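Action item from last week, closing it out:
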Amino acid sequence: MNTSNSNDKKLGIIQTRGFGDIVIALPIAYHYHQQGREIYWPVCDHWCEQLDAMASWINWVPVPVDSGSFFYDTPVEFLSQLGVTDILPLYQALSGHPEFTLEAYFQHTSFDQYKYIRAGVPFIKKWSLSECIHRNLDREQTLFNQKVTDPTVPYVVTHLRGSEQTVSYDPAIIPPGWNVIDIDDTGWVTDWLGVISRAEAVIMTDSCFANLVDQLQLPVEKYFIPQHHIGLTPVHGSDWIWLPNPKLKPQSVIFKGA
C-alpha cells in the first residue's frame, strides 16, 4: 500500500528540498495532521525558522545540507532517532532510489500529482494551502513598506529566477507608468505575500513563489514562463496566461510537432 499506517501516531515525511516542493506537499502533511498524526519533517536546516513560523503544527527536523545523504539517508536516520518508523517519501525521482520511478504512475503524471498519489491524498487538496499555513501580516506589511514606494502607482511583481535558469519576458506587456518589483532575497518567502497580494499582476517562472500564488489562489492576474517539460511542471489550479520561453532547453520539449 502507498498510504501511511494510521495505527502509528508519528508520520515522517521525506522531502528535504526544495522550498517549492515543500509548499506543494504541505497540504499532504495537513491531511494526516487532521487525522491526529504527529508530523515529523526533515528539511534544510537554514529553512527551519521560517517553516516553523509558517506551519508550527509540523515538527521540523533540521538537516545539514550536503551533496548526498542529506536527501534521504540522513533524514531516515534522524527520523529513526526520534522514534518515527512510518515514513512517507515524496520524491518522484532520486539518485540511488530507482524504486520511485518504478511506480505505475511515474511516467504519466507531473511531479506534484506523483506526490499526492503516493501519499494517498486527493490532488484537489493541493489548493487548500490557506488552511495549512500561518501568515505573519506584520512581516508582510514591513516588506510591503520597503518595496512599494508609492502605493498609488500600479505595480507588477516578477520572479524570473528558477532553479536552472533566469527567464525573460517582453516588457511591452506592462502598461506604461506601472512599476515593476522583482522578488529578491529580502526576508522570508512568505513575507512577500503582502506585496504579491496587492499587485495588479505577477510574472513568474517555476518557483516556490508561483506555487504559493497558485495554491493560495491569490486574486492577481497571473503570467507564467515555463522552464521544464510536463513531468516537471506543476499543475495549476487557477488561471495563468502562459508566455513563451525563448531559452527553453531542448530536453524540455518532449512533444514535437510535424
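Closing note: The chain has a mean pLDDT of 93.
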